[in-house]
Amino acid sequence: MSEKTGKIVGISGNMITVEFDSDIIQNEVGFAVCGDEKLKSEVVKIQGNKAFMQVFESTKGLKIGSLVEFSGEMLAVELGPGILGMVYDGLQNPLNELAQIHGSFLKRGAIEAALTREKNWEFTPCIKDGDQVTGGDVIGHVPEGIFKHPIFVPFHYTESYTVSFIIKKGEYNVDKVIAKVKNERDEELDLKMYFNWPVKIPITSYREKLVPKDPLVTQTRIIDTFFPIAKGGTYCIPGPFGAGKTVLQQVTSRFAEADVVIIAACGERAGEVVETLREFPEITDPRTGKSLMERTIIICNTSSMPVAAREASVYTAATLGEYYRQMGLDVLLLADSTSRWAQAMRELSGRLEEIPGEEAFPAYLESRIAQFYERAGLVELNDGKMGSLTIGGTVSPAGGNFEEPVTQSTLKVVGAFHGLSRERSDARRYPAIHPLESWSKYNSINDKKLISNARDILFKGNEVHQMMLVVGEEGTSLEDFVIYLKSEFLDNVYLQQNSFDDVDGASSPKRQQIIFKKVDEILKSKFTFKDKSTARHFFNQLRQLFIDWNYIDMHEDKFKEQENKIIKLIEEYSSDAESL
Amino acid sequence: MQKVYNKILSITGNVITVKAQNVAYEDLAEITTSRGKSLAQVIKLENDLVSLQVFSGSQGIATNDEIRFLGNPMRVTFSENMLGRIFNGSGVPRDKGAHLTENLIEVAGPAVNPAKRIIPKNMIRTNIPMIDVFNSLVVSQKLPIFSVSGEPYNQLLARIALQAEVDMIILGGIGLKYDEYMYFKKELEEGGALSRSIIFMHTASDPIVEGLMVPDLSLAVAEKFALKGKNVLVLLTDMTNYADALKEIAITMEMVPSNRGYPGDLYSQLAARYEKAVDFEGAGSVTILAVTTMPGDDVTHPVPDNTGYITEGQFYLKNGRIEPFGSLSRLKQQVNDKTREDHRAIMDGMIQLYAQYRETEEKRAMGFRMNEWDNKLLKYGVNFEAGMMDLSVNISLEDALDLGWKIMSQCFAPEETGMKSELIKKFWPKDNN
Ligand SMILES: Nc1ncnc2c1ncn2[C@@H]1O[C@H](COP(=O)(O)OP(=O)(O)OP(=O)(O)O)[C@@H](O)[C@H]1O
Ligand SMILES: [Mg+2]
User: Fold this and answer.
1) Which of A180, B261, B414, B430 is most exposed by smallest CB count within 10 Å?
2) Residue A534's domain is classified under what CATH number?
3) Chain-chain contact of B371 with A474 (C-beta, under 8 angstroms)
4) Is there a contact between B323 and B151 (Cβ–Cβ < 8 Å)?
5) Are residues A19 and A162 in the same domain?
6) pTM here?
7) Helices A478-490 and A509-524, axial angle in degrees (round to 10)
8) Cβ contact (<8 Å) for B373 and A278?
9) Which of A246, A255, A402, A429 for a ligand 1 pocket mutation test, highest count of atoms within 8 Å of Cβ?
10) Tens digits of per-residue pLDDT, B314-329?
């Protein structure tokens, strides 16, 4: 701990100006002393002997002349076993532990260790005295819930070291020195099961970053089939309030085929996190047979929690994601909402009296957003294993208008765009991802050709629909009308999905392939109908059968039976007429 | 004894600056002017320059008026004695009752630890089908009524407050017209609810800044009562006036506005208040119903827009009805699976059909010929509006669900409704009339 201190000379909102007389570091952490509380703060700008610091707490009660103690360290998180299943605030304080100590309210200045010191982990070494190691090498393992957690030589140890001591297999807590290594200058360093890592610095202890290629299955049909995401890729979900961004992320956090899911609740409602918090421990993850919570980490810095900590929270989440990627896992980071993070930057920038850009966002907004999404990626690790970090962020554009700085900056850097539309959510067409405006650069689980045909129908159907609004149904040809009905059918039975249903809520790739093939057949079929009302009647019936089909478990006999009913109905209408 | 200052260096808008030492951020000061005393709050410190926002406004302040720092931030009294009482935006009684100075509590206290929250699970029944069936209100929900001026939003607020089963009502009025204030008082009195109510009232004729404290005062008191086991309903009307007061201060402080003059932290400021809605494990709860008037009926206006991003849905009041589109209760799924098995299906299915009706209605208005299906939709739309949407309808949830099936069966064949076959079998009325 350094002994450097400073004195407050200005306070405005959560920004303090501090006069100091020794050397300090950009992004260094300091503590503003307010009575018996120490308020964690971060240096965000240095000018002469003045440091501008954002305070991660309410500044109520601070005075001119109040003491600030500098820590000599940048804002960092603890990386080691015991992170999975945890609920942290934006600075990695464990919220359950804080609740046990301080009760219902978040006590100002309260700080707790992110990794419990109480638990003993069963450590099995995998190196011996005299071995050569460097940053990122594995020195042993501990079992953590669903998998074997490797213990690394800290990533910032970039020299080559000789192991001078390694503890024998046994149970130790994270604070125990389990190994000692010497560098070439014969300086000895202690290794523990954890180390600190500054959140704003990406972890790059891998061989190579690759182009994402494999789909990350979410089990939401419109995503996996039409606008897929990829392991190591990035995507965004912009949408007006209430359009379904959070629900979509909640569903994804539950059903996505990832090893670890990190939920960053960034400046949104506390209540939404609570749902996850309370429900996940009760849900069994079919992939592991254990509780879903064991693969989940929640970073929870909701809207009434301090704004500066919100700014930090997405970096905390990204750092934890990168850490688990180092273990060769597929990690999915879901941030809700990146707009709140951007707003936190805007508030900070305003207090710093920087020259504002569009809508008062700082000029560096775009580069910050790009840097954040850059932390995603598919990487080949030093041991040849692959790991991925996928990042999906919601965007909450002012007025629901995508022509605003955060949405636009995000669209420039992501690989898929799931634009939610007010129109669709008002019409309860969930998930309200707009099928004509959204896009993805990644590979789908379904056949490209079928998809392009289906999208074609959607476009044409929409054209017919627009035209019908002008010329009316009677002015529309039967042929066009059938195209419209087909596009509505596709929308109703495939794009729309009931997220709250146990069966329909999660559609496995196999199931999506079966259903989509059947949908494709219908889209390609040439039906002949006497008139429009017969056509509508047929598609209504078909829709009904399909919707019922969507609610039947694939492994039940009824699934096949329902398919047969559908086939029968189609035959009925294709047989009594020749093709159009 | 606090030191007294009497040299005001600047007065702009409702903000004054003085030179003073040893002043804490957000502390209160008392200014004595020829018009009387007013409270002011520290909003910026720069070396020995202290900026204060004056609650009663700066009109008539003399540069040599006396300023005394109180050495504490905003506080409010808290006790059972507050029930039935009316206070102003500084927490001073507006009625003729005694001054209450006992048991002062801090306002705008820390946030609840999310780990301590529980999933809301109790529905608040209002007997308004547009709420109970389509957008159920839930204990601990925060929900505004979006509306334009002229709509009966305060009447709706009062009706829900009186029909809801809660232990206490706290009414926070911000910039309310005097007759609206009187209306609420009368409704609470006649509804027999005044004795379990507390009112913090700031009217349009009071200084604007004073309205800024109303949400904090109301919510601080509500929170304490909730911790003592009470289920408290907080009514805040009109939050747009609150946001406008924030805007005024921000402009005076020369903060860079983000959108139509509103400060960049509007979202955080509103969220800090609305997030006080909570259900405490083993104690009571705070539910917030607010009014947000939309200037120019524009939902994308910064105030309703930011509010919508914070609250758990909204009731959109238009033409004297709660609109099915735009209205939303995000907590409804916590409760509507425990009511009746057809609740969710009715909720989704009827709205989808109503959306189609709206489209058809547009086509009809444009003079298109209506086909058989269109006519079914038109009939449905009329029945739906009369049976479900009309605000005078006052029926239980179960009756409303039955009515829903009835309306559908009067207009459609079962498979035209998109309902699950299973439910159709069980609920579709047999005597089709
Ligand atoms: N897939 C869905 N199925 C059914 N209902 C949904 C679905 N998605 C959203 N909803 C409904 O819409 C409501 C709002 O959804 P959600 O909270 O996800 O919106 P949001 O886009 O995150 O809004 P905000 O920006 O204000 O946070 C939900 O509470 C639910 O009632
Ligand atoms: Mg959301």
Assistant:
1) B430
2) 1.10.1140.10
3) yes
4) no
5) no
6) 0.93
7) 170
8) no
9) A246
10) 999 999 999 998 899 9
